[in-house]
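Field: sequence (string)
Field: structure_tokens (string)

Example rows 1 and 2, in order.
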Amino acid sequence: MKKLTILGGLVCWAAVMQAVAAEEGWMTDLPKAEAKAKAEKKLVLMDFTGSDWCPPCKALHKNVLTSPEFEAYAKTNLVLVEVDFPRNKTQTEELKKANQELSEKFNIEGYPTVIVVDGDGRELSKTVGYSGEKPKEFIASLEKARKKAE
């Protein structure tokens, strides 16, 4: 019985830690992200992606979005939003609908598309595709968008 209690506690702890990680990492709700960005004086970076099927999306994620340089920059300057259009991952109908509406609102024509907006939703930059930029180059382009917001 004691083993079950410990196991239950570990499962509960893991669920809490996953929720904390999600809160600090990528969000899926743009209005909440914009409110957070406004409160923290940050920008919102939206990654329109086909995370489980799009080779350039996977490359951008692997080479830039999970790099230590980008993660450090993002922590200080960005609120991150994933707008995913997977083929094999399960999503709620609500999330699918919200993502489709964002795709239409921002005229998404290909993946990946990275859009930076300010806390009021004003579009500051839009990049379609990924051609192998390194984190340093990617961050430099984000800095240009940040200067537009000032």
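Row 2 begins here:
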Amino acid sequence: MGKSTITNLLLDKEHAKVQKVRLTDSHGRHTTAHRELLVLPNGGMIMDTPGLRELQLWSGEEGLQESFDDIEELAANCRFRDCRHESEPGCAVLSAVELGTIEQERYESFQNPE
């Protein structure tokens, strides 16, 4: 597939081991033996993994709502319909955080999912 070759090009150095394409069938050979998260010079990241053939995209908005369905359910009980769950009076989400029903870390992930 050439993933390690592409990784080397993106890193602008020979990091990952690569092998030549087989002459008999024009296919490459698996060379990656371990998973590794690499930081690219431009600030991006790439995950080099052995045997990975396919990735599925995650639907951002739908997937995010499903990930925090418990918080979304609480948000339906906020005093204000347009509550941002930051400092508004009558916020059911903040109340749940204060009571310990929702962990602070989970609340922070909900507020800043990136």
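free_text_note (row 2): The radius of gyration is 23 Å.
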